Amino acid sequence: MPGAKTVDEYILTARSRQDILMILRDLLRSTELSETIKWGAPCYTINGKNVIGLGVFKEHVAIWFFQGALLKDEAKVLFNAQNDKTKALRQWRFVTVDDLDAEMIIAYANEAISNEKQNKRVKIIRNKKLIIPPELKEALNQDNHLKLSFQEFSPGKQREFANYIAQAKQVKTKQSRLNKIIPMINNNIGLNDKYRNY
């Protein structure tokens, strides 16, 4: 349901598990978190900082803790949905209403709020070496304007483009991704700019 403008709209247009979403919403609204929509989904913040997100998927509803790796997780309910990519984010999944433990959800939310107030963050190593995949390297070598435009991006944004190509498994996918990013690079648009708050 990308594009929901309100949490009510997000819940109403969910194809399933609206009951779980409504209960989770009520629980999170009972805390000191502020409710908003980011990336078309419910997001709960404190002092403008993302703390918790909600998402409905085909098989479950998930709570995302933005700094979830810092939570004690004594009940062992959290897991990393993308081990190779995500350092801080952790999610807790619910398939039925019976999976919800209101007291525990509030406890986890309050711990996340407390951590945010203390400005606790997972340290992310950002100075990884930039490895440009052959497909992108060849395109840059063949087009001087593209090469100069690419060099204007920060190392982090260059790495996003490089990883986007490198992570594709098939040659055809690598080529279609390359075709997608060339106009973005030429127009000084970062791969993930639309998700960033400027």
Structural commentary:
The protein has 7 helices and 5 strands; from the N terminus they run H-H-E-E-E-E-E-H-H-H-H-H. With 198 residues, the protein is an alpha+beta fold. It has 2 domains: 7-117, Aspartate Aminotransferase, domain 1, CATH 3.90.1150; 134-195, no CATH class. A 5-stranded antiparallel sheet has the order 1-2-3-4-5. Helix 4 packs across helix 5 (144-152) and helix 6 runs antiparallel to helix 7. The longest helix has 16 residues, at 102-117. The two termini are 23 Å apart.
Fold topology:
Layout: H1 7-12, H2 18-29, E1 34-38, E2 41-46, E3 49-56, E4 61-65, E5 90-94, H3 102-117, H4 134-142, H5 144-152, H6 155-166, H7 171-186
Antiparallel strand pairs: 1-2, 2-3, 3-4, 4-5
Q: What's the number of extended β-strand segments?
A: 5
Order of helices and strands: HHEEEEEHHHHH
Q: What is the molecular shape?
A: elongated
Q: What is the CATH C level class of the largest domain, in words?
A: Alpha Beta
- Indicate how many domains the architecture comprises: 2
Termini, distance in Å? 23 Å
Helix fraction by DSSP (H/I, runs of at least 4):
40-55%
Low-confidence stretches: none
Domain YdhG-like: 17-113
Pfam families: DUF1801, OmdA
InterPro entries: YdeI_bac (IPR016786), YdhG-like (IPR014922)
